[in-house]
């Protein structure tokens, strides 16, 4: 036996396992790292550096919408939630939890949804359309109403699918509910400017007598509110705006054709401030065509002199009889002595 082999045999006789000599040290190091990691985790939790959340998978039927939710749940449909439906189907689950709080004293519900109406609607829809295995992922919080309002506002402020009108009405409700009508205080809590908040509140305050002119009021934006607010003073202008809004609402209902928002605003503005009559009748110039909803021609004013007004009734232009009656009435109001 060689010298090298005799040394190896001696080691074996002494009971030394050369193949695993460093293993105890490695195991000791792993155990130390695990304990250190747990200690660091506990220290982070104690200091507030890490916040734990309680996530649960629940039946959406056991969740109700919070009364202060800023989205009109009844307006949700397959079209408005199409992107979310496809995303959840592709992922096989809801990725982002909705924010909820527990309900006490209501046998029909366990939670109410603070943020996540579209997620709730989508999971409910999927469960009733061949995906019964999907559940509603929620983040359970313990928060009060004012904090819940601010939390929902922060989450939804940048979302395009939440309309300006929905957000505006939510702000108007919250102004009295949480801030005693103090707009400055509300702006400070939301970390926005007062002028920014004012534009939304102006939109929410538009009277129903005016907004009925729009077949889809949800299409109104904060920029539209500036032009519409200007029609509300003084009282005689406001009344003319209300009358025109009623007429436009009837025309659109009768024809089944919705006018674009900007066309409605233009019609309201013309009704409130009709073109001023000049001191003497119009003797020359290009003919003026009067149009109705959708730009359809009604009549053409050829000119006017001391003998009267010459006009052509464009009965084949596509406008309705009601629009023609209204157009002729306006000509009479403008030119009848």
Overall description:
With 337 residues, this protein is an alpha/beta fold. Helices cover 49% and strands 13% of the residues. The chain has 13 helices and eight strands. Strands 1-5-3-4-2 form a five-stranded mixed sheet. It has a three-stranded antiparallel sheet with strand order 6-7-8, covered by helices on one side. Strand 7 (297-305) and strand 8 form a beta hairpin. Helix 11 packs across helix 12. The longest helix has 25 residues, at 23-47. The termini are far apart. The model is unreliable at 1-19 and 278-284 (pLDDT under 50).
Quick description:
The protein has 337 residues and is of the alpha/beta class. The chain has helices at 3-13, 23-47, 82-91, 117-127, 145-156, 164-179, 183-190, 194-204, 208-211, 222-229, 235-255, 261-272, 321-335, and strands spanning 54-58, 63-65, 98-102, 111-115, 136-141, 288-291, 297-305, 308-313.
Task: Please specify the SSE layout and strand pairing.
Blueprint: H1 3-13, H2 23-47, E1 54-58, E2 63-65, H3 82-91, E3 98-102, E4 111-115, H4 117-127, E5 136-141, H5 145-156, H6 164-179, H7 183-190, H8 194-204, H9 208-211, H10 222-229, H11 235-255, H12 261-272, E6 288-291, E7 297-305, E8 308-313, H13 321-335
Parallel strand pairs: 2-4, 3-5
Antiparallel strand pairs: 1-5, 3-4, 6-7, 7-8
Helix pairs in contact: 5-6, 6-8, 8-10, 11-12
**Number of discrete helical segments:** 13
Mean pLDDT: 82
Radius of gyration, taken over Cα atoms and rounded to an integer in Å: 35 Å
Oligomerization state: single chain
Largest sheet report: 5 strands, mixed
**Spatial strand arrangement across the major sheet:** 1-5-3-4-2
Helicity range: 40-55%
The structural class is alpha/beta
Q: Give the percentage of residues in beta strands.
A: 5-15%
End-to-end separation in angstroms reads: 137 Å
Q: N-to-C SSE series?
A: HHEEHEEHEHHHHHHHHEEEH
Low-confidence runs of at least 5 consecutive residues: 1-19, 278-284
The shape, in one word, is: elongated
Total strands: 8
């Amino acid at each position: 036996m060689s010298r090298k082999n005799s040394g190896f045999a001696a080691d074996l006789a002494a009971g030394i396992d050369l193949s695993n000599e460093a293993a105890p040290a490695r195991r000791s190091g792993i155990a130390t790292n695990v304990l250190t990691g747990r200690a660091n985790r506990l220290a982070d939790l104690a200091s507030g550096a890490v916040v734990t959340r309680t996530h649960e998978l629940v039946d959406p039927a056991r969740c109700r919408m919070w009364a202060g939710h800023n989205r009109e749940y009844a307006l949700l449909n397959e079209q408005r939630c199409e992107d979310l439906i496809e995303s959840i189907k592709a992922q096989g689950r809801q990725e982002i939890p909705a924010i909820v709080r527990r309900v006490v004293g209501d046998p029909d519900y366990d939670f109410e949804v603070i943020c996540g109406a579209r997620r709730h609607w989508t999971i409910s829809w999927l469960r009733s359309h061949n995906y019964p295995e999907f559940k509603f992922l929620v983040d359970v919080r313990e928060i009060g109403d004012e904090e819940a309002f601010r939390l929902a506002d922060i989450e939804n402020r940048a979302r395009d699918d939440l309309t300006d009108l929905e957000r505006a009405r939510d702000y108007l409700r919250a102004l009295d509910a949480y801030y005693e009508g103090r707009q400055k205080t509300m702006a400070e809590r939301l970390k926005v400017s007062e002028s920014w908040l004012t534009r939304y509140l102006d939109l929410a305050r538009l009277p129903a007598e005016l907004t009925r002119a729009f077949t889809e009021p949800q299409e109104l934006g904060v920029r539209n509110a500036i032009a519409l607010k200007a029609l509300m003073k003084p009282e005689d202008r406001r009344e003319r705006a209300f009358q025109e809004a009623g007429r436009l609402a009837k025309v659109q209902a009768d024809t089944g054709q919705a006018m674009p928002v900007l066309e409605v605003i233009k019609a309201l503005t013309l009704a409130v401030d009709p073109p001023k009559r000049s001191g003497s009748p119009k003797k020359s110039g290009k003919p003026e065509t009067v149009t109705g909803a959708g730009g359809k021609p009604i009549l053409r004013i050829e000119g006017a002199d001391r003998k009267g007004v010459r006009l052509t009734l464009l009965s084949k232009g596509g406008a309705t009889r009601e629009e023609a009656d209204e157009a002729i009435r306006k000509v009479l109001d403008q030119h009848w002595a």
